[in-house]
TrEMBL record:
This is ATP-dependent dethiobiotin synthetase BioD. The active site is at 38. Pathway: Cofactor biosynthesis; biotin biosynthesis; biotin from 7,8-diaminononanoate: step 1/2. Homodimer. Belongs to the dethiobiotin synthetase family. It comes from Fibrobacter intestinalis. ATP binds at residues 13-18, 55, 116-119, 195-196.
Amino acid sequence: MKNGYFVTATGTDVGKTFVTALLVKKWRESGIDAGYYKAALSGAEYINGKWVAGDADYVKRIAGLPDSQEELVSYIYKEAVSPHLAARKEGNPVELSKVKEDFNAADGRHEFMFVEGSGGIICPIRYDEADAASACEKIVPDIAGQKIFLTDIMKTVNLPLLIVTTAALGSINACVLTVEYARQQKLEIRGIIVNRYGASGNLQMEDDNIFMMQEMTNLPLLAKIKQGDTDLGTAPF
């Protein structure tokens, strides 16, 4: 297993990119040459005449990364939908061989890697439709009907998981289900990071939710981040 972590979350809009940026920034400020990689990004932004991978660009700016956009992200889609649907509409579906090649190149440039996932842990990355697969079988049988999920990318890069969650109402269910699915897939989990701590205004509930998430998953709380924090608030782990 290589040096690094795969950052996933209990769902979309939990703040995974914000947390990943703070992680990369903290490691680099601590003297560790940390890098960043994301296999597939949808919802690119059109800025100054070019499509920009917003998540990767944010991490690059916050953490001061020297890498180019092409080195940070393998597949960029315009529409803000799941990568499997974006690829079906725009073309250029994800190939695990390219993900592996690009990740290994990024890993070779840096001492420690943070890989950011897309959406939640069960996010479909490529899901070829039956009619498209049938047509494809006549031409290229070995790539017909491919189905790739985020867990396949996790297994390809072979890094332990960091699970980003909030402590809001419903977070216990989302966190425990994410952990149980990861364990079902035989993925190693390093721990939990709570984002937007205090945002609900009910600290008694949030503190109890954090306690219950730890109790029910037997995983450590690695960091607790408030909205707008500019530092991870803990040393590299």
